[in-house]
Design goal:
Subcellular location (chains A, B, C, D, E, F, G): Cytoplasm
Helix content of chain A: under 10%
Number of domains of chain A: 1
InterPro entries (chains A, B, C, D, E, F, G): Chaperonin_GroES, Chaperonin_GroES_sf, Chaprnonin_Cpn10_CS, GroES-like_sf
Subunit structure (chains A, B, C, D, E, F, G): Heptamer of 7 subunits arranged in a ring. Interacts with the chaperonin GroEL.
Radius of gyration of chain A: 14 Å
Strand content of chain A: 35-45%
Family (chains A, B, C, D, E, F, G): Belongs to the GroES chaperonin family.
Strand order of the largest sheet of chain A: 7-8-2-3-6-9
Shape of chain A: globular
Largest interface: C-D, 27 and 22 residues
GO molecular function, one term (chains A, B, C, D, E, F, G): metal ion binding
Oligomer: homoheptamer
Structural class of chain A: mainly beta
Number of strands of chain A: 9
CATH architecture of chain A: Roll
Chain lengths: 97, 97, 97, 97, 97, 97, 97
């Protein structure tokens, strides 16, 4: 995966819904608004605030996170890999190891 | 529960509606917009303000709080435990012990 | 009443509409948008502004105030007491003693 | 009139539409959006800005002002006196003596 | 005309549509959204910015200006004079003498 | 053309759609949302930012620019000349000579 | 291509959907909301923040980027070349070489 996300964007590898989720959360395909689980594969530099300071991302590569369903933009690479480009705002929590 | 909420998010364990509520408030399942009661199980670092300073959360783990109905995102863990990920803005008050 | 409101929230005890209102204002149940009267029973720390400073509340416990109808969230305690959790923004004026 | 308005609120005594208006403006009951005239009877401390400084009100007690029709909240006291609680933003101009 | 506008408000004397417009612009009553011409008769202190500084108005009494049609609030004085209270934001340009 | 635009406003002389456009762009009357070309004939002092500093305009008199279709306000002078008063935000790019 | 974009705008040369995309992403014409790939041909000075500081663009000429479909404004030059003027906010990621 050779993308460098911009600003406050984060690239996730969505976890397959039926696989045993790292966070131990139920990942029902159907249930509306239930958060999804994914692995962080790339992080941007962070959000530029009104006064120019940069808000470093709280998440880092390798973290497994919960994110709001329907957020972000899907990207499918030629080898069929699906990624999701979200804003850090869309990430709800980090799944502690 | 092994989630670390991000930013100004707080993870609550909603109190069952019929149990005797800690705050002594009536928790009618039905009544529209009546606030709900829940226990704080994890807090984020806090909200990053426009100038980069972080607004520490007022609530802490273990607090019982009133929160606006219909706010936040539900998460159900594999062992059937239900949690709610809200923003601190959605929490109305702390129930004093 | 054992709730500590968060941030810029204020807890009021709404004055019964027919009782003689402290501020001497007419409290018609019916009239649309007419302000209501209530007594302040608890105040939050105040609103956190963009630069992190806290805007101390202008009202204090014991004040009788006028507030915009339909604002805030109702809370009913087990002993049937009704309170209203509003934001200070919803309070129009203090009734001078 | 024993109310102390909060923040950037101002309490006005609306001028009766048919009386000779101080500012010499026509106060037609009917005409849509035409501004109204009223007398300032109480002023708040002023609007708290994003950085915590307080923007002192430009109007003071006794000023006669023009204000946007339909703004503010009406309050009727027991002795039948009608007042209007507006935000200073709703006041268009001061009528010079 | 004895009104002192508040904040960033400006009082204009709209130019009659058919009179030869100072700026030499066509003032068709009908044409939608075409700007109007008027003379500045009073200016407020200026807009208070987020940090409390006041943005002095660019226009001054006597200037002839172009302003966006349908902006502002009309005021008619007893002697039938029509004025318009606009915000400086609604003024597009000054007609150079 | 004797108008001095206010604040962040810019006055443009729209290029006739069929004339050979300076920037060599196709100026089809019909095509939806395609940008238009025009010449800068007057610039305002610039946009006043939240803290009072003024953001100098990037464009200057004589520049040929691309601007978003349907933006701004048309002004027709008595001698039939058509101008457009836009905000600098509506200008997409400068056509390099 | 002789345009200099203003502020936080970036000019892209969209990659043809069927060509082998640099980032190796699938560029299906049809799929809704799938991001598009393009090459940066010109960058603006950057976004002016509330306090006047300029947020330098993260992308530079020559970068291949992923951008949100349907964003920006199309420009077609006389020689039939199609460009897209977007805001840096619309760019999701840079395709690493």
């Amino acid at each position: 995966m050779n993308f460098q996300p911009l600003g406050d964007r984060i690239i996730l590898k969505p976890l397959e819904a039926d696989s045993k989720s790292k966070g131990g959360i139920v990942l029902p395909d159907t249930v509306k608004e239930k958060p999804q689980e994914g692995k962080v594969v790339a992080v941007g530099k962070g959000k530029v605030l009104d006064n120019g300071t940069v808000q470093k991302p709280e998440v880092k590569e390798g973290d497994v996170v919960l994110y709001a369903k329907y957020s972000g933009t899907e990207v499918t690479t030629k080898d069929g890999e699906e990624y999701l480009i979200v804003r850090e705002e869309d990430i709800l929590a980090i799944v502690k190891k």
